[in-house]
Amino acid sequence: MTTEKPEFSMRRIEFVGLIAMMIATIAFSIDAMLPALPEIAAELSPEMAHRAPLILTAFVLGMGLGTFFSGALSDAFGRRNVVFGGAALYCLSAFVAWMSNSLEVMLVARIFQGLGASGPRVVAVAIIRDLYAGREMARIMSVVMMVFALVPALAPMLGAGIILTAGWRAIFIAFMAFSLISVIWMALRLPETLAPEDRRPLRARLIIGAVRELVGHPTVRLSILVQSLAMAMLFSMLMLVQPIYDTVYGRAESFPLWFGGIAVVAASASLINALLVVRYGMRRLVTIALGVQILLSGAMYFLNLGALPDPYGFAAFVFFQTCLFFQAGLTLGNLNAIAMEPMGHIAGMAASVVGAISTVLAALIASPVGLMFDGTTKPLALAMLLMAIAAYALMLYMGRVENRQPAAAE
Q1: pTM for the full predicted model
Q2: Distance CA 328, CA 309 (A)
Q3: Taking a C-beta distance cutoff of 8 angstroms, is the pair 94, 145 a contact?
Q4: Domain 203-402 -> CATH class
Q5: Is the pLDDT of residue 342 over 70?
Q6: What is the per-residue pLDDT for 167?
């Protein structure tokens, strides 16, 4: 296999912009939909409005399923082919969602839209790995993720602006335009980064073998389960946050501004994690964050803080939401690193499988939570409490398992 890096003429700032846009497809496809949920419910599911948030987890489910195969497909057929194929499926599915007259059709379209989005998302990271190595790769990735972190802050405001000017269906046109811009940009400016001689045949047995090895390793298995629960908490909040702002607190119009501000504040969690993880370690930091979440969720549920008179109830929920987003920044990256640490010999395949399993499980766990909404914050608080308790218990068990491993090895 060749070790030479492909030549390309893009300046670094342009390359970072392109890769960030490809990765941002996921966040834009989820967060821009939040302001549209009431209108989608009123038009497509008026008698069961609580089902509308399923369009978020349907997309996540499709994305998780696609993550299983996108990396392996790009190793076999090249990066550009998978990006172009994924973008085509994404745009076609967005078109079907745009034309849909029932929530059921839209949910199916959103699953396939998630499948398509997984291509550019996974391949973007592979392209960085093709062109850069070591500290330079880490530097590029950090800049990309910094740009990517701005999308959740801006997407709801963009979605609200689109709804105001052209109606909620126009959001799907924006999705298609966003994807087409990134694909055309890549087609014109970025050549194939994986040489034909470096491609690897697509073998199902390699994926099956990776799944067996990951599931068979106690620490990795537990980390995937905890990561699934942590992601399910995040997805549950995303499903219910807009209905809560609208129905419970009557702040639908200002929701995009609140969501954006909270996303910006919560983005600092990654920086704080980088400062703390060296001192406290990944497992301890995750355990502490989940313990705090148990206390916060318990207070929200048992004291019913969300029902306090305005503005105190709203302030309590905003604090709860901010802490949940902050928790995601302190846990998800660490849990992924814990799962990957014993899997260095199959790092690429392991990353794909870990991401796929945890995302699919999280979507399946979060979907029923979205159906529990009763016009109060209590169902969400209860779901968060139960998931945090389960995740915390698994982290404690992980500590005991790791303490036994050296003795077993001896």
Answers
A1: 0.87
A2: 29
A3: no
A4: mainly alpha
A5: yes
A6: 95
Domain ranges of the chain: 11-202, 203-402
Phi-psi domain of 158 (left: phi exceeds 0; alpha: psi -120 through 50; beta: other): alpha
**According to the model, what pLDDT value does residue 408 have?**
37
For residues 405 and 401, give the distance between their C-alpha atoms in angstroms, rounded to a whole number: 6
Using one digit for the tens of pLDDT, what is the confidence trace for 154-190? 899 999 999 999 999 999 999 999 999 999 999 999 9
Topology agreement, domain 11-202 and domain 203-402: yes
Q: Per CATH, which fold does 11-202 belong to? A: Growth Hormone; Chain: A; (1.20.1250)
CA separation, residue 342 to residues 229, 243, 245 (Å): 21, 41, 42
Q: Residue 5 corresponds to which tokens in the numbers above?
A: 């890096």
**DSSP-derived secondary structure for 159-221:** HHHHHHHH-TTHHHHHHHHHHHHHHHHHHHH----S-GGG-----HHHHHHHHHHHHHSHHHH
Q: Which of 186-190, 192-196, 366-370 is predicted least confidently?
A: 192-196
Euclidean distance between the first and final Cα of the chain, in Å?
A: 38
Q: What is the pLDDT of residue 140?
A: 76
What lies within 8 Å, CB to CB, of 200 at 6+ separation is: 75, 76
pLDDT digits (tens, 9 = 90+) for 74-111: 888 889 999 999 999 999 999 999 999 999 999 999 99
Separation of alpha carbons 308 and 367, rounded Å:
27
* Sequence-separated (6 or more) residues with CB below 8 Å from residue 193: 6, 8, 79, 127, 130, 131
What is the rounded CA–CA span in Å between residue 224 and residue 242?
28
Q: How far is CA 108 from CA 11, 57, 104, 243, in A?
A: 39, 11, 6, 22
DSSP, residue by residue, 39-92: HHHHHH-GGGGGGTTHHHHHHHHHHHHHHHHHHHHHHHH-HHHHHHHHHHHHHH
Decide if pLDDT at 146 tops 70.
no
